[in-house]
Amino acid sequence: MSERVIEASGLTKVYGAGAQRVDALRPTDFHVDRGEFVMVSGPSGSGKSTLLALVSGLLTPSAGTVRALGRDIRALSGDAFDRLRLEHFGFVFQGFHLLPALTALEQVAIVLERQGIQRDAAHRRAAATLARVGLGSRLHNRPSELSGGEKQRVVIARALAKQPQIIFADEPTSALDSANGRDVTRLLRAAALEEGASVVCVTHDPRLIEHATRLVRMEDGAVLSN
C-alpha cells in the first residue's frame, strides 16, 4: 500500500465577502503518495497555485484540513511548522528568489546550515548537488552571472540538497526555453523516481504533462480530475 504524504480534505480559499467574494478554491480533496510526481495543470486563474500554497502551508485555508507527513499542519505551532518546512519541504518557484550577493554555492549551503549542518559539510553537500544539476563549474558565480536556466538549476539544487520528502514547484519552467524546461522537469522527476521524494508541480505548460506520474486538472477553482 502506498504511503500518503499529503492528504487534503474539503479545502477551500475565499477572499472578500458579498459582492466582492472570490472563491479562489472551491471545496477540494487532494492527495499525494510517496514517490509520485503529481502535475497540477490548468489555465491561469484555475486555482492551481492557490492549491499548492494551501497544501504546502504557505496559505491558510478558509476551510478544510491538510495533513503533511502525518501531521495536521494547521494544528502545529508556528515554530513546529517552520521546522517541518525546513527539514522536509523543498520549494522551487518561478521567480528564483536568489540572494544577489551570494554565489551559487552559498545559495545552497546557507539552507543546509540553517538545518544545523556544519559549514564545511554544508558546502561539500551543496557543491555535490550543484554538480549533479550540471553547475559544477559555476559554484562561485552570482545570480547576475547566470542564465535563466542556470538560476533555476540553483533553485532546484537548493531544494534537493535538503533531501526533502516533498518538493513543491510552482511554474518552474515558465521563464525557460524548451530545452532548459525539459532539463528542469527531468531533474524534478528524478527526485521522485530515484530518491523517493514526492513532487507537486503546478504548470500550464502542456509539454511537461507527459513527465508526470499523475495528472490533476483544474478549472475555475475546482479539481476536475484527481
Q: Any overview of this molecule?
A:
With 226 residues, this protein is α/β, with parallel strands linked by helices. The mean pLDDT is 91. It has a single domain (4-225), classed as P-loop containing nucleotide triphosphate hydrolases (Rossmann fold, 3-Layer(aba) Sandwich), CATH 3.40.50.300. The protein is globular. The relative contact order is 0.20. The chain is 34% helix and 28% strand. The longest helix is centred in the C-terminal third of the chain and has 18 residues, at 178-195.
Mean pLDDT reading = 91
**Category from helices, strands and their pairing:** alpha/beta
At CATH level 3, the topology is: Rossmann fold
Helix content: 25-40%
Give the distance, in angstroms, between the N- and C-terminal Cα atoms.
18 Å
Which oligomeric form is depicted? single chain
Q: Low-confidence parts, pLDDT < 50 over ≥5 residues?
A: none
Q: Tally of extended strands?
A: 10
Number of domains: 1
Shape: globular
List its traits:
single chain; about 230 residues; alpha/beta; Rossmann fold; four-stranded antiparallel sheet; 6 helices
